[in-house]
Write a structure and sequence with these properties.
Blueprint: E1 12-16, E2 20-21, H1 40-50, H2 52-62, H3 70-93, H4 109-116, E3 129-130, H5 163-180, H6 188-194, H7 215-225, E4 228-229, E5 250-252, E6 256-260, H8 264-274
Parallel strand pairs: 3-6
Antiparallel strand pairs: 1-2, 1-6, 4-5
Helix pairs in contact: 5-6, 5-7
Keywords: Disulfide bond, Glycoprotein, Hydrolase, Protease, Signal, Thiol protease, Zymogen
Signal peptide: 1-22
InterPro entries: Papain-like_cys_pep_sf, Pept_cys_AS, Peptidase_C1A, Peptidase_C1A_C, Peptidase_C1A_papain-like, Prot_inhib_I29
């Protein structure tokens, strides 16, 4: 989630040093990402076209996948084939994107959401300020902060629902780069371990490590705590742990954050002016 794309963001924050954020879109009603399961005859024919057994064997070898029983193996093979069909459909719908086998290919969409997506329902605090409307007349057609050195390498949250923490640090890494000229990888684990800030307007909406969180809460935590350490000083474990925050090793701070309009041109303008925008997305 460390990569942030203008066209993928649905709801955004900008923070100053100046970071930004966005909420996840549910795939529940999106027909483009539903499972595509043909009838039995079609399925057998398509399995042959997909060469599913070969791909499943390669998948198991590459990602060291093992299953306790034959029943579990056969179930996972069935899920894998369904995901191959879905990837094939997506490739037809959007040839510009790359669709294929990943380490998640033996999981159903529901299992993936349950295990890896930790974004909680998002509500904005009353004091959250709105970003000013920016001019959009001369926006570039293409713009990528990766090419300008403002985005760190891809990170892996593992089997921890900490996407919210990666979204927060990714935005702040870009903002810190724009403010200082230095690209620093920041600590998601600090947020997982130490950030337990709650939204005062939503009972129970508290950041809770691998059990999920909210980016606006995380920005509030960073404001209150005084900053975030470097990744190398507080490395990621992908597990809930005891807070080990050392304020003497703060690498980046936030002075404020604001809500960006849902208008795509405003998102583009904020991206160009304020730096990488963070987004929480359901990607299957």
């Amino acid at each position: 989630m460390a990569r942030h794309s203008l066209l993928l963001a649905l709801l955004l924050f900008a923070a100053v040093a100046t970071a930004a954020m966005a909420v996840a879109a549910s795939d529940a009603d999106d027909i483009l990402i539903r499972q595509v399961v043909p009838d039995v005859g079609e399925a057998e024919e398509e399995d042959n076209l997909l060469n599913a057994e070969h791909h499943f064997a390669s998948f198991k070898a590459k990602f060291a996948k093992t299953y306790a029983t034959k029943e579990e193996h056969d179930h996972r093979f069935g899920v894998f084939k369904s995901n191959l069909r879905r990837a094939r459909l997506h490739a037809k719908l959007d040839p510009s994107a790359v669709h294929g086998v990943t380490k998640f290919s033996d999981l159903t969409p529901a299992e993936f959401r349950r295990q890896f997506l930790g974004l909680k329902p998002l509500r904005f605090p009353a004091h959250a300020q709105k970003a000013p409307i920016l001019p959009t007349k001369d926006l570039p057609k293409d713009f990528d902060w990766r090419d300008k050195g403002a985005v760190t390498n891809v990170k892996d949250q593992g089997a921890c629902g900490s996407c919210w923490s990666f979204s927060t640090t990714g935005a702040l890494e870009g903002a810190h780069y724009l403010a200082t000229g230095e690209l620093v990888s920041l600590s998601e684990q600090q947020l997982v371990d130490c950030d337990h800030v709650c939204d005062p307007e939503e009972y129970g909406a508290c950041d809770s490590g691998c059990n999920g969180g909210l980016m606006n809460n995380a920005f509030e935590y960073i404001l209150q705590s005084g900053g975030v350490q470097k990744e190398k000083d507080y490395p990621y474990t992908g597990r809930d742990g005891t807070c080990k925050f050392d304020k003497t090793k703060v690498a980046a701070t936030v002075s404020n954050y604001s809500v960006v309009s849902l208008d795509e041109e405003q998102i583009a303008a904020n991206l160009v002016k304020n730096g990488p925008l963070a987004g929480n997305l359901i990607v299957l």
